[in-house]
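Students often ask why we bother encoding 3D structure as a string. The short answer is that it lets us treat folding as translation between two languages. Here is a chain of 327 residues written in the first language.
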Amino acid sequence: MTQRQNRRFWQKSKYVLLPLGGLATLTIGILTYLYFPRLLPAKPSSFTLIAHRGVSQTFPLDNLENDTCTATIIYPPTHDFLENTIPSIREAFKYGADIVEIDIHPTTDNQLAVFHDWTVDCRTNGKGITHEQSMQTLKQLDIGYGYTADNGKTFPFRGKGVGMMPTFDEILQEFPDRAFLVDQKDRFDKTITILSDSLKKYPAQQRKNIYLFSGDAQYEMLKQEIPEAQRIFPPRKRIKDCIPQYLLMSLSGRISQSCSKEAFGVPVRYLKYIPDLFWVKAQEVGLEVYVIEVDTREDLERVQDLPLDGIVTNRIEVIGPLIRTIK
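And here it is in the second language, the structure alphabet:
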């Protein structure tokens, strides 16, 4: 490169480098503003502890796919309870859960089966899509059949779960004064019709204890028939749509009504990225915040000083007693 070409190169480069330098300065300024330590707001007056699927057999949460058979990767069992069953729900409330999350599917004989998976192949000794079965068939399955913690060498719950898949009605009858977060695993109008018909058989006060996790259309359909039904978290699609607003709220101090009318659930592993300013702005705009997957003592220590509206845990048998100790 000649001296003249070299001079021309640097004359052109400065118009690129100067803006880049300004951008770096702006970025540093924004990050400094965001992550400057601040006094956290006071904790909300109410706090909700949600037990995900009751007392259950847990498994690693990393690298899960939609078709991962989680029953085959459980940790070595520390108790005998299986998720989404009446004994596991009863035990979750004993450990201090305010709400228990359960999963529902319609059946061919117009009942609601309380079971997580889209198919019965993973956890049970049956085959096929869950909503294509009758409740009579589902009641004959062994829901503990597929659980193993040692790559199939042993199956500690095989033979112990026959007939234990409950109906939604059985759960309402067993726990008339308890609250449930009901996860609609499909987007069928049929499911909502069965759900509303079932809820109409129970007192208004009991219907107030039902929180639906579903699509917007399904929730509005239920509200038309059961006005007392409520919601804690937005549907999955809206969560994705609102993530940019959740992130920018700390800077703008604003968030749309559609993104603030239900709670924001933050996985505990992402807390390290959330600045103090987020908690300040969340309270200012009225956004409720839950931390989810709080499953260990260490997780709880990370969140215990935050101004949370609630926690969702996969291990209520661990977290419930610890929360009572802290309180």
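Translate back mentally: The chain has a mean pLDDT of 91. Keep this in mind for the problem set.
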